[in-house]
Amino acid sequence: MTGEKIFADSDTINHSDDNVSYLNRFLLLLFALTVGFGSIAGSTFSRHDESRVAGIAWEMVIEKNYVVPRLNGNPFLEYPSLGYIPAVMLFKLTGIKSPFVAHLSSVLMGMGTVFITFLLGRYLGGEKTGLIAALFLQATIGFISLNST
User: How many other CB atoms are there within 10 angstroms of residue 99's CB atom?
Assistant: First the structure.
């Protein structure tokens, strides 16, 4: 009897909560895209090491050596090679070496961090907690500036 009752109740589940959940995720994605693209719109390389990092990533694409980063043909081992991989992947996919594409890899990695935050918050405290945690993270000025360089 109890087994039949469980199956009977599962047929009458209200799926409107699922639609709200998908809408929340879509709005979070839209917010993250807007903030991320807004932070790199019209960006150029700063005077710091951004142009060097992009050059190393571009050289990795040209040389097809994704293990040892090189700067002007010489091994450049100050940073781990995995740090260049997001930019390398976008350079390889687009075939374009530009500040926008180099910064886009940082924005996409930041969006991944926002969604991991959402998933962790949802797991620990529910859908609303995950959404609020992700929105707070994406709206933080330090996080935005970190993911636009």
Answer: 16
